[in-house]
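ok trying again, last paste got cut off:
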Amino acid sequence: MMGGTGSRSEFEGQPDFMPDKYESGTPNTIGLAGLGAGVRFVLAEGVDAIRRKEEGLTARFLTGLAALPGVTVHGPHDAANRTAVVSFSIAGVSPSEAALELEEHYGILCRPGLQCAPAAHRTIGTFSRGTIRFGFGYFNKEEEIDLALEAVRSLTGGAAPH
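nice, full thing came through this time. structure:
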């Protein structure tokens, strides 16, 4: 436990004597309230319902990516066998350039590069360049998946549908 040093305010660390060593500063009340609200939401919606929604969005994205030339999906192609996170590569397009284009022209944020997982990228053969990673959540909509696919299509050199 850290924070505020109670009876020894002139020091940076907690006192080492009783009971002061257990009198840390103000707890992260806002964070705890947010965690509580999140847990209540998950319990009310149901873990299975949340999973089904995320799996459906992921399946839609994977199906769309499969139709794009030059796109390689890394990981299972069946949404039932993965989380709602999809890493992919586009032939001839660096992940960082793709991310910049997605943000600037479509307002889409993704995670390019090695994603703090160099061993994983060595394993899948993408080390040094990395991949483009999208993550989907319960509050995403199918229309957002379609927009993301349109944006990725434009990066492959294909014309985006109107």
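cool. The longest helix spans residues 47-66. The chain has five helices and four strands.
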